[in-house]
Design a protein that fits this description.
Layout lengths: L1 H22 L1 H10 L9 H22 L2 H32 L3 H5 L7
Helix pairs in contact: 1-4, 2-4, 3-4
């Protein structure tokens, strides 16, 4: 009996907190959309790893446990991570076009050693 109650509590926490987590991407997306510097603090490798982690977890839950809710919640988290990556990439491209690549400006600051 305790196992069933504990399992139900874990399932309820998973659904509740993953639903809230999806909403918590909105402030990050809003910040990215307002950013005028190309979203330099967004680490694309990290966000892309979250896309893969969430998508693979959801697929695992569906394929091996038959958990459609787990699939839906994890794919929603993966989609919000993908949206963050997409916004950051667009912002970076626009920033580079408006201000140059940044590499040329940095290389202009280098001095010759000699």
């Amino acid at each position: 009996m305790l196992w069933i109650v504990g399992g139900a509590a874990v399932a309820a926490c998973f659904v509740a907190f993953n639903t809230v987590r999806i909403a918590l991407y909105v402030p990050q997306l809003r910040t990215c959309l307002r950013d005028m510097h190309g979203c330099p603090t967004i680490k694309l490798f990290t966000w892309c790893s979250w896309i893969i982690a969430n998508a693979s977890t959801g697929l695992y839950m569906w394929m091996f446990q038959g958990d459609a809710w787990g699939l839906a919640l994890n794919l929603a988290n993966a989609a919000m991570s993908a949206a963050t990556v997409a916004v950051a990439l667009v912002k970076r491209r626009h920033h580079r076009r408006a201000h140059g690549s940044g590499r040329a400006a940095v290389s202009g600051l280098r001095t010759r050693r000699g």
